[in-house]
Design a protein that fits this description.
It contains three helices and eleven strands. The chain is mostly beta strands and 210 residues long. It starts with a strand and ends in a 27-residue tail after the last strand.
């Protein structure tokens, strides 16, 4: 009988963590499949371990009328420039415009997380490891009605003009020594709030908070 276990992965995105669990035989060439999110199902098996990583996305708007978007992980840094003139009706701060540009530039969040020893031992003994992704409230040190996993990653169907390699939902592949998780960022923002609302000194320009 194959023993069922689950592995919790804690990752920071937008300075935001989630936890994860896994499922695959490391002796077969891995492929990407949708990862479970939210609370682990009752029949998922026994908790085995957790492991973490991080990814940060920064948006900076410049007076030369462009955004610089930086995607930084433990292994790589990517940057793109988005010009205000590319936006329809000069709506350069529109969240849908920014998301479309980021997706078309293949800004995929990719986590490479090495297995802890408990997972390596379980795989060596033929156990079935199932990954589950969720928010790690203890690491985040914050919780409210908005701190749910679907506010941070895309789960919506993508339009046909988007690159075909984009994951519509978070996906994973299990390897001998690590797991790869891929997801698209979801821009969860408060509408109608600008930097003036958060400053304690005078500032004349309506820079949006993204």
């Amino acid at each position: 009988m194959v023993k069922k276990l689950f592995f919790s992965i804690l990752v920071l995105v937008f300075i935001f963590p989630f936890s994860c669990t896994l499922s695959y035989s490391s002796k077969i060439e891995p492929y990407f499949s949708e990862i479970l999110t939210g609370s682990p199902p009752d029949n998922i098996g026994e908790y085995i371990a957790d492991r973490g990583g991080w990814i940060l996305i920064e948006f900076w708007h410049y007076s030369n009328k462009y955004w610089k978007v930086t995607l930084a992980s433990e292994d790589d840094i990517k940057e793109i420039i988005i010009y205000d003139k590319e936006a329809k009706n000069i709506l350069w701060a529109d969240i849908n415009f920014l998301k479309e540009k980021v997706y078309k530039h293949n800004f995929i969040l990719e986590f490479k997380i090495h297995h802890p020893q408990e997972v390596l031992n379980a795989l060596a003994h033929g156990a079935k490891i199932t990954p589950v992704m969720n928010i790690d409230i203890e690491t985040l040190k914050y919780s409210d009605k908005y701190t749910i996993i679907k506010n941070y990653f895309n789960y919506e169907k993508l339009p046909p003009e988007m690159p075909s390699n984009l994951p519509e939902k978070p996906i994973y592949a299990m390897y001998d020594n690590y797991i790869i998780i891929k997801a698209l960022p979801n821009f969860f923002c408060e509408a109608g709030i600008t930097i003036q609302d958060k400053l304690y000194f005078g500032y004349p320009h309506p820079i949006p908070i993204v």
